[in-house]
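The following record pairs a protein chain with its ligand, pyridoxal-5'-phosphate.
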Amino acid sequence: MKLYSTNNPSSRVSFKDAVFNSMPQDKGLYMPVEIPRLQQEFLDNLDKYTLPEIAFTVAQHLLAGAIPDGDLKTLIDDAINFDAPIVELEENVYVLELFHGPSLAFKDFGARFMSRVMAYFLEEGEKQLDVLVATSGDTGSAVALGFLGVPNTRVTILYPKGKVSGIQEQQLTTNGQNIRALEVEGTFDDCQALVKQAFTDAELNEKFRLTSANSINIARLVPQTFYYFNAYAQLLRQGKKKVVFAVPSGNFGNIGAGLLAWKMGLPVEQFLAATNANDTVPEFLKTGVYQPKATVATLSNAMDVSSPSNWVRIADLFKSDTEALKELITGYSYDDEVTLKGVVKIFSDYKYVACPHTAIAWTALKDWLAKQNDAELAGVFLSTAHPCKFPDVFPEQIGKAVVIPEQVKALGDKPKQATGLKADFDAFKQYLLTH
Ligand SMILES: *Cc1c(COP(=O)(O)O)cnc(C)c1O
């Protein structure tokens, strides 16, 4: 597999280099030179395969030999060891549950695959890989649990004190082993600024082999294509062939992976890009003007992004054909009031509890379906996280209906291990050098 930078289409790097660099020097993003179309035979018979089998075939084609078949299969069976079921809530409306991994969010797909790819490429005797990650909640827990126990790696998580939910904090701080948590007196932006500065610090780079685990890493994008194919496989089993996906979007990695799956031949009628009040992309799709505003805080805080980092990739997929892009993707943006209304309606209609991000995708799907007249269309909205991760959002009656998964209950018994840190680079650097 060869990749180029979106800022320099004639550049070429290997998959291994793209994974360890994360971002090209020229600040573009890595994209595969070849996006192979899967065989029609395979696509037509997806319903005959399991998720790990689908994942293997998709990765095998995309990675094109970057990891030999036997190793790739072992790696995928280890990384993708949980389910991604679709659940029918009403006729032709399905939720794709992506929260059955260890951190209870879809980011487990990316984090688990990436950690294992990195461990695979680390050669024996090589310097330990130090992963630095700033988080507002979900990324940090997926990365922590993804790298937990992975040999020759160490993860340092920076999270803003008092600004993540109770369960998120437990997921970040109770791991031990090769995972350590820094509780920063500041905001998520402060955490991110500390990490960014560390990457440009000569002394730290001399001493450590630093890498970031953020959502632009190509090794996080690849495994997110798997569950789109697998959702389609499940629809085929129900006799459905026409699908629209509604995707709750922040940095646009999730929907970007869906578009990559579409490029590889997955037949998708339409993608709905559903955002909260941070509506840069829906506005662009409507007006043609791409104009990020200041980020606003919302109930769906994992999507509080006004400059989506993966948008460059999506634009690159369509080159300059904005019309084709607008034909395939419809944008929707909703404020907190509508988000909460969605949460309440989903509960009253289906007795189902959806996290606020998921509720935004459901609202977009319902709005879109209301304008269609095609009984064969199946709508699938992606549920990106388990509702127990966002307990403060729900009215009391709905909150009581949230079933806490067993693995979360077990976290409560483990001691919190976190080091307090001022939002100050010298203090952060000192910590890294002395611990
Ligand atoms: C990260 C996240 C999103 C946004 O996904 P992107 O790939 O950044 O668009 C949505 N919902 C939840 C729960 C998340 O954790």
